[in-house]
Amino acid sequence: MPFLRPQPFLKMAAGKILEGVFAINKPIGLSSAQVIRDCQNFFDPSARFAPLLEQERQQRDKESKFQRNRRKAAKKKIQTKIGHGGTLDPLAGGVLILGVGKGTKSLQQFLLCTKTYETVVVFGASTDTYDRLGKIIKKGDYSNLTRDAVDKALEQFRGKYRQMPPLYSSLKMAGKPLYEYAREGKPIPREIETREVEVTNLEMVEWYEPGTHKHYWPDEEAGQAEKDVAQSVWRVAKAQEDGGEESAAKAAAEEDFSSKKRAAEEAVDGLVSDETRASKRVKNEEGNPEEPLMSGALNSKKEKLNRPPKGRGSDLVPARPDDMPAPWEGKGPPAAKIRMTVTSGFYVRSLCHDLGEKLGCGAMMAELVRTRQGQFTVGGANCLEYDDLLRGEGVWGPKVESMLEKWNTRPGEIQEPTVENGGVKAESTPEVKVEEEPVPVMEGADESMLDEVPVKEEPVAASA
């Protein structure tokens, strides 16, 4: 039999396979899934990842016809296999841990890591989403609010306590929006689940006096039915917190009566409608030039950046026009930057909202940055700047290669202790939440299972 010379691509397949775990500094305005797609956009044509792609191609060649037919059309395209170890909302930036190839198998451990966040809280109003992208539910008096008062209130959130998830995470029960309960005169859920969380460090790092910052409330107020549902859920939650199950049941019964009374008094006149927000999403996805958007990437006119094509997870956080009037009279409310280190299952936006409730004036999350997750830190040697991708492979290539190699050769230096290695006690299973939620590993552009979509859309289901 004549000797067959190996084809060039087989030589490449036998080369160094880059896989492992690294982190990227996610910009505000992008979904976590979009960041993964952007990485694939840059990694797929790179010679550095050709051996990994060829390995995947050879593995697929061994699949049966049945297995190949089961693969969705969007997944038939061979792409760099990438997943992440805890998502970030479009409004949040910072450390997003990415697993490449076999590195995706290590992502679950990062749900057990402690995380450090920096958030900006703006006082004086509460929203349905607990952040500045929602609709205003109520406003409060902030005229006498001081830094000392906020510092004192923060003391109640240190250590272990039971935290109520954000209202929006409870807005759908059994697949039904809570505002429909109000419209139909049905009672709100009688049980509102809380979870034990732990805050190992909590401090105010900056105080912004009124008129010295540019953190604004949203301009849109919620409809009356939305406000009614929010207030009723909060009242039941407060009763549950203050008086236990008996008080909560009594409060829920009272809210049941109130909701039926409201339904009888109110005509079905579109009290609550997601039409406006839905239309805005459509305009965003179609790239409506009339609506100002923020991409989240560096806005540099001096440097030509190779930006990836915009996807459905791009431009999700609208920028506030400079000429838009402030949603308040006078100087407005104060704000504060708060740094915290927390355990798994913690909702930063809930802390912001609950802080406003303790102070009696309302509050919402205006900004959020995850500065650390495990041993990955923003600005650290194992965290790639997103804009390095835009500057070309000459910039990002050596950095990503070094990070992945370090993960494989010296993982102990960049991995935080976990249950698996005995460094963390298995006290509880990490739960999926809005700020941090595992997504299915993305092998292709299967849009049906990607984004945790902006603002009011349902998050992707967890894979585990």
Number of helices: 11
Distance between the termini: 49 Å
CATH class placement of the largest domain: Alpha Beta
Low-confidence regions: 1-13, 251-301, 417-464
What value does the Rg take, in angstroms?
A: 24 Å
**Share of residues in strands:** 15-25%
Q: Judging by the overall fold, what is the CATH architecture of the largest domain?
A: 2-Layer Sandwich
Helix content percent band = 25-40%
Q: Find the structural class using helix and strand composition.
A: alpha+beta
What is the residue-mean pLDDT, rounded to a whole number? 76
Order of helices and strands: HEHHHEEEEEHEEEHEHHEEEHEEEHH
What is the 3D form?
Answer: globular
Number of domains: 2
Number of strands: 16
Write down the CATH topology of the largest domain: Alpha-Beta Plaits
Largest sheet: 10 strands, mixed
Domain tRNA pseudouridylate synthase B C-terminal: 349-392
Keywords: Isomerase, tRNA processing
Region (Disordered): 56-77, 238-332, 412-464
GO molecular function: RNA binding; tRNA pseudouridine(55) synthase activity
Structure description:
This protein has 464 residues and is α+β, with helices and mostly antiparallel strands. It has two domains: 8-111 and 376-449, no CATH class; 115-219 and 223-271 and 324-373, Alpha-Beta Plaits. Helix content is 30%, strand content 19%. It is built from eleven helices and 16 strands. The strands form four sheets. Strands 1, 2, 3, 4, 7, 10, 13, 14, 15 and 16 form a ten-stranded mixed beta sheet that branches. It has a two-stranded antiparallel ribbon with strand order 5-6. A hairpin with an 8-residue loop joins strand 5 and strand 6 (136-139). It is globular, with a radius of gyration of 24 Å.
